[in-house]
Predict the 3D structure of the following.
Amino acid sequence: NPEAVAGMFFGSGMLLMIAGILYLGRWMKRDNRSLARSLTQIGLRNITRRPSRSLAVIGMMAGGIFLVVAVNAFRMDATDAGIGGFALIGESSLPVYEDLNSEAGREAFALDEKLLADTKVVPFRVREGDDASCLNLNRAQKPNLVAANFASLKDRFKFASGSLPEAKSDEILAIADQATAMWGLGKGVGDSVSYQNAAGETFGIQISGLLGGSVLQGKMITSESAFLKAYPDAAGYRFFLIVGRRR
């Protein structure tokens, strides 16, 4: 269970840090009034002169180092299920109208057909919203809304809860990364997020599934048909997941 492993890691790290600070606190209270004869001894005498200040500095430095080590220890590997089998991610500042899986679409951008022979592109339409990633300390209200053909995402990502919406569902459904929904939105499976459509009318998108640690963090992913009903003026594609060999 990843949550249990993370809890044990942080719990043991916190206990180790507390034990270290308590040990240093006892060490600083011992008799250090002997004459300092070297630069090292002068430094030690200075540390013990004001123990509370020294312990506060040591605690902050230890906490910072621990967080850096923790982030690196839990870094996701490229082989994890969170990437959904996709080798590359692409973004465009301008909308792409052509189908990059077709010969005509690749010719429009002068893409080498031989290099892309075993490549498949899954395009997403994009509606800009609030940043719901870990870079935003505030709670997002309307995260970036992206849309794709759900059939192209089937059986690619691991769901922490819920599932991919059915193609014939009458409700406007979406999936989201678990971390984005829980911490960025404060939502779970069955909850709804409100958006305004192209006419300025408010509508809700219900979360049907949460992805367990994916490359789609910070986004709400809905079907292309539902997206176009709300935003018929949306032009082209601006986000891409690419299946193929990484070179």
Summary: The longest strand covers residues 202-211. Helices lie at 2-28, 39-49, 51-73, 103-108, 178-185, 224-230. The radius of gyration is 26 Å.
